[in-house]
Please model this.
Amino acid sequence: MPKVCIAIRHVLFENFGVFENPIRESGFDIEYFDVPIDDLDGNRYEITSRFMLLD
Model:
């Protein structure tokens, strides 16, 4: 199973910036969820390897 880093964004243009490449080079896929538009219900977070909140 691939390693996944889930990022929850409150502002749609935010991202990991200079940290994105090192995260990906460490073998993680990055998935962004946008609070204003994405469905954040469910148990998807139980299977993630990393969880980050961008504020």
Q: What stands out?
A: The chain has a mean pLDDT of 78. The CA atoms of residues 24 and 42 lie 25 Å apart.
